[in-house]
Design brief:
single chain, 17 strands
Length: about 350
């Protein structure tokens, strides 16, 4: 299976640079994963499409202002860090630019010394491990010094940083938003709940995988970076009851999907647990946890295109993407949505 098999043509003007005014007014392509049939709707139509036998699983991770600009203590050289993973005891895995200037022992200062980062370890692909030193609460300091880590294909300044958060964001620690959830409003969630739809939260802190393209020719040679996930006792019980009752489990986003499939593959059921997942879902994968997926349109040759192809078939997905380009859907993080059912 070749990475090039998951490529498609995308005009640059279709890459959404800013969020639309009203979250739930985005367009939604509905794709039948069995037949490949396509319907064109809007996101708020979910109220009419879902019912009391449906369960929506959302990722309640909260994006932190994880992009920091600092200077090397010895030379005043400018260094950029993207905080990716909190490994405990104030030690963080970071994407570092320019990484070649940062060696073990290098100290980087942010905000005139409010925050200092000392490099403990050098890893490949621009990754460095840092020990953070500060007084107070780190997330409060990040609110002062950090920027929201928008993806590199977004060049417009984000006027309202809350638009890169879901309305249900709660668990701090993500380096990117679970973008399928950006379409929901509190009112829409209330309307779905009133119809009897069960809404179940899980957590997956989005990390390096979001920023890394697939650079190998053979899909199976790609290495996924691990991300932290968590499922509560209450969520596991709701999902197990739903499975037993034959209810449809609809995952909101690829991050929720990876969390659910990681847990179900490990336990054969849903379980209260937490850990690190590097699950890589591509065609041939047997889904055990989810029945349907709400997602955005993803980058060519990305692991996310491979995941949706595993669910709906590569031919159906590439045809749907071709149709989306033809109908000028908006692509990627601030773009339109797709409901694969």
């Amino acid at each position: 299976m070749k990475t090039d098999d998951f490529d498609y043509e995308l005009p640059e003007y279709l890459i959404a640079q800013t969020p639309i005014l009203n979250r739930d007014q985005s367009r939604m392509m509905v794709l039948n994963k069995e037949t490949g049939d396509i319907d064109h709707r809007h996101f708020h139509d979910l109220v009419d499409m879902l019912g009391s036998n449906d369960v929506l699983v959302i990722n309640d991770t909260k994006v932190i202002p994880a992009r920091l600009y600092g200077i090397k203590a010895e030379t005043d050289a400018a260094i950029e860090l993207l905080l990716l993973k909190d490994t405990g005891n104030d030690i963080w895995e970071c994407l570092t630019k320019p990484a070649k200037r940062v060696k073990v022992g290098t100290v980087i200062s942010f905000g005139e010394g409010i925050l200092k980062a000392t490099c403990l370890e050098e890893r490949e692909e621009g990754i460095r491990i840092f020990k953070m030193e500060y007084s107070g609460i780190l997330y409060e300091i990040l609110d002062k010094l950090g920027e929201m880590p928008l993806p590199p294909y977004i060049h417009e300044k984000l006027e309202d940083k809350n638009r890169y958060q879901t309305v249900y964001a709660k668990a701090e620690g993500s380096a990117a938003a679970p973008t399928a959830g950006l379409h929901f409003t509190k009112e829409l969630l209330e309307q779905l709940t009133a119809k009897g739809v069960t809404i179940v939260p899980v957590t997956l802190h989005v990390g390096l995988g979001t920023f890394r393209p697939v650079s190998v020719e053979d899909v199976t040679s790609h290495k996924m970076h691990s991300e932290f996930y968590q499922m509560s006792k209450e969520s596991s019980e709701l999902l197990n009851e739903a499975k037993k009752a034959g209810k449809r489990i609809i995952s909101v986003g690829t991050t929720s999907t990876r969390t659910l499939e990681t847990i179900y593959q490990a336990y054969g059921m849903f379980e209260e647990c937490s850990g690190w997942t590097d699950i890589f879902i591509y065609p041939g994968f047997k889904f055990k946890a989810i029945d349907a997926l709400i997602t955005n349109f993803h980058l060519p040759k990305s692991t996310l295109v491979m995941l949706v192809s595993a669910l709906a078939g590569k031919e159906h997905i590439l045809n749907a993407y071709k149709e989306a380009v033809k109908n000028e859907y908006r692509f990627f993080s601030f773009g339109d949505s797709m409901f694969i059912q």
